[in-house]
Automatic annotation (TrEMBL):
Pfam families: GGDEF_2, HTH_30, PucR. Residues 151-286 form the CdaR GGDEF-like domain. It comes from Stutzerimonas zhaodongensis. Belongs to the CdaR family. This is PucR family transcriptional regulator. It comes from the Bacteria. Residues 8-126 form the Purine catabolism PurC-like domain. InterPro entries: CdaR-like_regulators (IPR051448), CdaR_GGDEF (IPR041522), PucR_C-HTH_dom (IPR025736), PucR_C-HTH_sf (IPR042070), PucR_dom (IPR012914). The lineage of its organism: Bacteria, Pseudomonadati, Pseudomonadota, Gammaproteobacteria, Pseudomonadales. Residues 341-398 form the PucR C-terminal helix-turn-helix domain.
Length: 412
């Protein structure tokens, strides 16, 4: 995984570092170190830094130290280290210790006798070693997930040498963070980019915590706005992992808004030779999670039903022709007039043909909805009393939603 605050405390030569507060976050990943030389740190950190506060270049009274702790929490810093001694910061005020504990910010105390050059060299060396080990581990996982290897046995031996056992069955989870463009419409580019990076750091940290909590953790594989997590599969059912992910999505989406996190999960119990197919299953499930908001951002491959069949059709033109044949007249009419027929059709299906509930969902009178449904039947040549016609329309709606690269915010 990553270098953590607890690993920093255990480094040789740093025995005089002492954890004063925020033990709940002591396993936060440390991305780099940063020495605070300005009054605040909010404009200078991107997330994941271990922030050192010396008091040498800027006075650090109680109010300023409280500000630094709060900004560290806001910017998702890995922790704060305050240097104490006779000349600058004599002691850490009790209020600062309490605030760090309340916010879950790891607060370390470093005596001035422990030279910064020793600390920075020790942490820097450990970070480089951890990054090299992390890249090697991620490369092995990437090969496994891509199916890009000549000998599975040889790759497993390399994984063992990296202390990364891969023989146990796993469930593949693929997560995507999207809607970043909304950040850049709400704030200046610099602020939006900083917030995006802080959100990515928060997400990375939380996902790593979840893997640790589930046990037998393997490193996350990060690909742009996607994260691949290999979850332990201890039973034939995926429900424990699904429940954990559902709770995490609910928590993270409330924190990361307007960014939105989606997750697709493979069927359970893939061995090392099947991880590539497991990633394919997770991709299909992620697409459904993005396209069908009623699934609340999470979908398991085992729940796809007919969507699994649709996703397996590689000839896109077949699906496009089917949608055009069944829904083309409605789509064309909506493009020429106010787009009401397709939303009406989707609402009617969502409410299982209940006119009253569909009208309520669309905030229109029931008579209006009834008229629209008659017009839909006239344009499509379908009768909704015919089960075969209803099936065709339902499948065409599914294909259309799956074909959209972004979820339709107006879809029920």
């Amino acid at each position: 995984m990553s270098l953590t605050g607890s690993a920093v405390l255990a480094l040789p030569g740093l025995e005089s570092l002492r954890l004063r507060a925020g033990a709940a976050g002591v396993d936060n990943p440390v991305r780099w170190t940063y020495v605070a030389e300005n009054e605040g740190i909010a404009d200078w950190v991107m997330g994941g830094e271990l922030v050192f506060v010396t008091g040498i270049n800027h006075p650090r009274d109680e109010a300023n130290l409280l500000r630094l702790i709060r900004e560290a929490q806001e910017r998702v810093a890995a922790g704060v280290v305050i240097l104490t001694g006779e000349e600058f910061i004599h002691a850490i005020p009790d209020s600062v210790v309490s605030e760090a504990e309340r916010l879950g910010v790891p607060l370390l105390e470093q005596p001035y006798q422990l030279k910064m050059v020793v600390v920075s060299q020790s942490i820097g060396t450990a970070l480089v070693q951890e990054q090299m080990l992390g890249r090697s581990r991620e490369h092995v996982l990437q090969q496994m997930l891509d199916g890009d290897y000549q000998s599975l046995e040889g790759l497993l031996r390399r994984a063992d040498s990296l202390q990364m056992p891969l023989t146990a069955p796993r469930q593949v989870a693929l997560l995507k963070l999207q809607d970043s463009e909304q950040l850049f419409t709400q704030a200046p580019p610099h602020d939006a980019e900083r917030r995006l990076q802080a959100s990515r750091q928060l997400l990375q940290r939380r996902l790593e915590q979840i893997l640790i909590e589930l046990g037998e953790p393997l490193p996350l594989v990060c690909q742009g706005e996607h994260w691949i997590a290999l979850l332990p599969a201890r039973s034939a059912h995926a429900s424990p992992n699904r429940e954990v992910l559902a709770a995490a999505l609910d928590e993270l989406n409330s924190t990361l808004a307007p960014l939105r996190l989606y997750a697709g999960v493979s069927a359970n119990g893939h061995g090392p030779a099947q991880l590539a197919s497991g990633l394919g299953e997770a991709r299909q499930a992620l697409l459904v999670a993005q396209s069908f908001p009623e699934r609340l951002g999470l979908c398991c491959f085992s729940d796809l039903g007919v969507l699994e069949l649709l996703g397996a059709i590689r000839d896109r033109s077949l699906l496009d022709r089917f949608v055009d044949k069944v829904l083309g007249a409605l789509i064309g009419d909506d493009s020429r007039h106010e787009p009401v027929l397709m939303p009406t059709l989707e609402a009617w299906f969502y409410e299982n043909g209940n006119l009253a509930l569909a009208a309520q969902r669309l905030a229109v009178h029931r008579n209006t909805l009834s008229y629209r449904m008659q017009r839909i039947e006239a344009l499509t040549g379908c009768s909704f009393n015919d089960p075969h016609d209803r099936l065709n329309v339902a499948v065409a709606l599914m294909i259309r939603r799956l074909s959209s690269p972004q979820p339709n915010r107006n879809t029920p």
